[in-house]
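In the current project phase, the collection of sequences with tokenised folds has grown. One resulting record follows, to show the layout:
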Amino acid sequence: MEEALGSNVLKSAMAEMRRYKSLADRALAQTSNENLHKPQDVHTNSLVVIMKHIAGNLRSRWTDFLTTDGEKPWRDRDSEFVDNFTSREQLFDFWEQGWQVAMQALQSLMPADLTKEISIRGERHSVPLAIARSVAHTAYHVGQIVHIARHYAGDDWETLTIPRGGSEAFNQSMRERRASH
């Protein structure tokens, strides 16, 4: 039973990370190069900066996840808040690298690893807590990405989830899908 529960926890975490990446990617696909670099005001981060921060955090937290502190000595967190990408391709390469590190590390975990502890900035965390923190941190910033991308897209925005006024139709389609399986 514990093995099945652990496997379920890991599969669920992976599914959530994939879901948040998909939301971010679909929002970013609707964003012009100019708007990627434009903060909404002087007190907010641009999409580039949020993406850079997420990717930097994922790389640091998930590189050698079980064996080294999650805050790597090579990470320069403060530089994550500086937009220094010269092309969309360069930005998205960095973005993908961060996600790839996280997904590969998460995929490699075994149910028995959930009983272990890791450290982040010297503070001990259970592996389930570290996973939950990473998913929550990522979700928080993906929400910012979606919100900002939606703002810049205006009337051209293509909804990523259930459209306004579409809840009942969506729920009905889900009921029909469940009934057919």
The CA atoms of residues 162 and 168 lie 10 Å apart. The longest helix spans residues 2-28. The beta strands are 117-120, 123-126.
